[in-house]
């Protein structure tokens, strides 16, 4: 597969494994997993032809490790970013003292008033390093990087989870914990 084909498959997998599994008629279990053979069969009948080897290549080479196979490679799921109601089965973790969030200037007034919201997703995503937050923010324009005092949040009782691909997840970041 060339890079453009991998990107196209990755985008389609994000759609069906995070947001709309019904597009090809698959179901996700309570932890977001679906059967690999069924996924491949339904992708192929829906016009998105793929083999197991190609699927494995997309999962293994995805720069953000958006997807994961079960240990036996019989199931697959998105690592985080779901808008459908699932539980990733993650235990709360103590976050680093600071994490980062990439956004753009047009959202700053709202963030100053309401903090960071998870919007339609199950969790708000935070990055361990500024570079990753920069990439995230740049998807919508010129990035603005927010420094989040997650150590203080954790001390105040906020819960944090670490996804399989290293993205930190929480439900909300009040404005008082954000360094603009």
From TrEMBL:
EC number(s) stated in the UniProt entry for this protein: 2.7.1.-
Stored SUPFAM superfamilies: ADP-ribosylation
InterPro entries, A to Z: Ptrans_KptA/Tpt1, RNA_2'-PTrans_C, RNA_2'-PTrans_KptA, RNA_2'-PTrans_N
GO biological process: tRNA splicing, via endonucleolytic cleavage and ligation
Keywords: NAD, Transferase
Gene3D superfamilies the record matches: 3.20.170.30, RNA 2'-phosphotransferase, Tpt1/KptA family, N-terminal domain
An example molecular function term from Gene Ontology annotations: NAD+ poly-ADP-ribosyltransferase activity
Family annotation (Pfam families): PTS_2-RNA
Similarity section: Belongs to the KptA/TPT1 family.
UniProt function note: Removes the 2'-phosphate from RNA via an intermediate in which the phosphate is ADP-ribosylated by NAD followed by a presumed transesterification to release the RNA and generate ADP-ribose 1''-2''-cyclic phosphate (APPR>P). May function as an ADP-ribosylase.
NCBIfam families, sorted: PRK00819.1-4 (NF002014)
Protein name in the entry: Probable RNA 2'-phosphotransferase
Name of the encoding gene: kptA
